[in-house]
Fold this sequence. Notes:
Blueprint: E1 4-10, H1 17-25, E2 32-37, H2 44-51, E3 56-59, H3 66-79, E4 84-88, E5 92-94, H4 98-108, E6 112-121, H5 129-137, E7 153-155, E8 163-167, H6 171-174, H7 186-196, E9 200-211, H8 214-220, H9 228-239, H10 247-267, H11 271-286, H12 288-300, E10 314-315
Parallel strand pairs: 1-2, 1-4, 2-3, 6-9
Antiparallel strand pairs: 3-10, 4-8, 5-9, 7-9
Amino acid sequence: MAKVSVVVVTYNALPWADQCFGSLMASDYPVDVVVVDNASSDNTVDYIRSRFPDVFLVEAGRNLGFGLANNLGMKLAVQRGAQYLFLLNQDAWVQPSTVGQLLLGFAFLPDTAVLSPLHLDGGGKDVDLYLQRYLREAGHSIGPQPPLSSPRYLDVPFVNAAAWFLPAELLNKVGGFDPIFFHYGEDRHFASRVLHVGGNIRVDTQSFVYHDRLERILKTGMNPPPTLDREWVHFLTQACHPSLSTYRWFSLKRVLRHSLLAIQWTIQGSISKAKIHAGLAHRILRHQGRIRTARQRGQTAALCLPSPVPPGLQIG
C-alpha cells in the first residue's frame, strides 16, 4: 500500500481545524498528516495536539510563508516514507473517498504530475469560483454546480494549490516551491516548472474537496485592486518563468515601464498608483540577485527544500 502524507500549513487555523483534520482522520485511505504551523497566535497548536494526537506537528516559530512551510512539510513527509504528497489548505476538508480516488487517478493516468480534486465551496453546493475560472480558461465547459457527467480527468495548465496530490518523486524533477514567493504566486511558478519538464496537471471531477473561502472571495472580489505586493508577485511569476530566455531585457523594460508610469500617475495626481509603480521599479532593481537565483533554481530543477529541521523548530 502506497504511503500518502497530507501536508497542511496552519496559521490561526482554529475555525477549520475540526473539519480539516477530522476529515483526514476519517479518510477511507489511511494517511500520515504533517502540519507546519507558521507561528499561529491563537490556540491552533495546542488544539491540534490535544484533539488530533496522531498528527506530526512542527512549530516554525515564525511565519515562513506558504511555500517555504510547505517545502518543510514535504521534506519531513518524504523522510517519513511518503510516496505521495497531498498538499491541503487549512480551510479545506475532504470526503472519506477523496484520497483513495486521487491515488487511483495515478494508476489510470501514470503521466500525471499534479492531480487536484474538484474544489467545492464550503457548503458543497457549488464549484469554487476560482476553479470555475481556471477550467474555463483551459477550455472546459463547467457551470457552478458539480458536474454529473463529464470527462473525469480534465487537463489544465494551472489549478491553485489548495489541494494538490502529487508523487513525491516529482520533487526530484522540479523542486519545491521557490522561497522567493512568500505568499501567493508560488503555485503558479511551480505549475510552470511542471509543464516545462513535460508534466501534466489535471483535475479529477469525481473526487471532491470543500474549500471554505466563498465569503472572502465575495468580499475582495475576483479581481481585487492592484497593490505593490500583488504587482510584485505578478512580476515574479513572469520573470521566474523557466521558458523566459531574455530576462535581462525583460527586467530592464519593466523597470523603465514602471518608472514612466510612476511619473505619469504623479502628473495626473494619482499618488497611490504612482507609489505602486515606483515601488515596483525599485523592488525589481533591488532584488536582481534573488530573481536570478530563483530563475537558476527553476531551470535546473534544483530542490528548493530547506533542511529537515532548521534550528529552533519544535517537533512533536
